[in-house]
What we know:
Elements: H1 4-18, H2 29-45, H3 49-59, H4 68-75, H5 87-91, H6 97-106, H7 110-118, H8 121-130, H9 133-137
Helix pairs in contact: 1-2, 3-4
Amino acid sequence: MNNFNEKVSFIWQVEDLLRGSLPTEPKYKDVILPMTVLRRLDCVLEPTKEKVLAKYQSIKSSKVKNLEPVLNRVASQSFHNISKFTFDKLKGEPANITKNLSHYIKSFSKRAREIIDHFEFEKHIAKLDEGRIVSRSATF
């Protein structure tokens, strides 16, 4: 999904799945915006994902106290994610999407999590899960 139009189409596919399932139309923005941010972060980290995971495995039990700068350097960004999940892998386990998405979010480095936490997205995920909307939307 290197093409900008493909990315826009992907985001609107998610929006189409969610629209109408949420209590009121203005509420879907509470899901779409953070999903768009998460997707963007996922795309940015994709080229270095495996290197970051390998480095994390090699240093997580070491004497290094602050792993974030090391992993950020490997990611070539000011943030990283140590979850085995990517958006594609999340979609591959629709029955566990709520648990896996929560884990994925918590696996971001502090700086990225601060942005995501600002949206209170996990609260919205819980509400969606109550209505089983997240599980249905994971099939996109």
